[in-house]
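Closing statement on the zinc ion sub-project.
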Amino acid sequence: MREVAGAIHLHSCYSDGSGTLREITAAAARAGIDFLILTDHDTLRPAADGWQGWRDGVLVVVGAEITCSDRSHVVALGATDVETLRQKPLRRVLFDLANQGAVAIVAHAHPAHVMGYPLKAGELLDWEVPGFAGVELWSFMHDICNGLTPWRIPSFLQTWRRRIGGPHPDTIAHWDRITQNRRFAALGALDNHAVAMPVLGTRILPYEDVFRTLRTHVFCDRWSGGPEDADRVVDAIRRGRCFMALDLEADARGFRFEAERDGERLWMGEQHLWQGPTTLRVHSPVRAQLVLLHDGRRACVAEASALEHRAEEPGVYRVEARIDGRPWVYTNPIYLRPGRVADE
Ligand SMILES: [Zn+2]
Ligand SMILES: [Zn+2]
């Protein structure tokens, strides 16, 4: 299994971001990420212009962020047409994306206010509309910009790293409820625009700085260095075979959460029928507070670089990790289902 770490949810000058693809891929290479997923508004033009594939040693995956008629946003990966879906009702958008074989993700679920206005959050209740494969559980932009006012922008440019709080507790609680019934992938998203501020002679959150923060680490069973790797990243995300990490805190490459049963290794995102007590293991590249959760409740906590726990009951198991009290890693669950596995 190959681990690749990348940046998800980016806007370029194909929509309302400030960077060209040339600038963005160069910034990604400098920041050392393996892939990036573009999500310009209502367009796949970067793909038509030949940008999907490998650039500067970084895999570029062209997705899109679709604006529905209720103004909600859906992130689409692997779609073939998004232009005709613009301003269509959410259910229609999800139905059409499913027909295209695309993955639909609830965009920026984090409730936030910026400049006194509520930002578009992924409407919590709408997650249960059929067709969503997952959610941007941690939306970096909504996290750090929550409560921002115009007069705070100059200090924000210096201190934004201190505003990082992690996924919103309401978002996590809602996700935990949904995963009781079905697999629902969680990922970390940047929603970066690198807005230009000519007056200040700078950009708000330049791409390279942000590429060093929240990354989604994806596990692909095959990796060839060719253009087909883009489909592999999208497929792994669809299956929830990933975790998100604030790599600014510590590089999370090598972090693992897995289960072992009769010599078989179960990966995060996988659903299996409960067959009796199962060993769960967490390995961390650095010492951290490791929290194992069972159906959203703490089952085991350790300040360590490894943790082992024997699951005596079926349920949804996942891991959170913190460093010095700060949010660091959120994994997708391993689902050990007591009954039939419905959506495998
Ligand atoms: Zn959006
Ligand atoms: Zn966006």
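The helical segments are 21-31, 45-48, 90-99, 140-145, 153-159, 169-178, 207-211, 229-238. With this model delivered, the sub-project is considered complete and its resources will be redirected to Aim 3.
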